[in-house]
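Researcher: Structure for this, please.
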Amino acid sequence: MSGIGIGIGIVGAGGRMGQMLAREAHAAGFRLVGGTEAPGSPNLGKDIGDLAGLGPLGAKIADDPLPLFANADAVLDFTVPVATRRHAEIAAQAKCPIVIGTTGLEAEDLAAIERAARHTPVFRAANTSQGVTLLLSIVQQVAAALDADFDIEVVEMHHRMKIDAPSGTALALGEAAATGRKVKLAEVAERGRDGITGARKRGAIGFAALRGGNVAGEHTVVFAADDERIEITHKATSRAIFARGALKAAQWLQGRPPGLYSMVDVLGLKG
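Model: Predicted structure, token format:
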């Protein structure tokens, strides 16, 4: 991947993921045009390169995202839902492609993203890893092939600082399994068990969320029947894989018409 000539902006540039995005973008030859942080952040006014440990790059951290979207060829957003809603609106206004990796999105957030996609190219993924994209496809196929004699459980583990659970990727895996089974996830999901819960419901899709240490992300989908079990696992050992996937998406969005895209589109897996 070579990003030479493509100007990248990063919202939430001071966070761990924001700094990782900056480092990976710089390493791949993208041009960093700047970043944003919330008003009052101690990082305001700093050089985005200094903040990411790269040395000065001549691009500052500001608290107003509009100029960033106006000057970038694509903006990367791994922030929080309330900020992502605003960023989607600004991207539409500036006609700037946006790559969204924010998790924990609710219906109103998704609606704002869909509105933005009418005016500019928008990429959204709960997980920008290429491997997870393939995992989603495999889970859907396996779920379609196995009937409800196979119970489905999605188990995920992340670092202690993650604020949402189950993870966006876990929920996406649940959706993939539900699609394979031709059911609605909302009607079969079991997202928490405590105390005397009774026997497991046939056809349920269960979720378990583990938190601890600095785990970048581990997801396992278990298909369990009497006397046999299939486990499909993806393990991320560094956030760098998410940054690389986001940058691949930013590069792919260049010249695309307005629309809502996913990693399936970027990897050419449709049809």
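Researcher: Any notable elements?
Model: The domain at 7-124+239-266 is CATH 3.40.50.720 (Rossmann fold). The longest helix spans residues 130-145.
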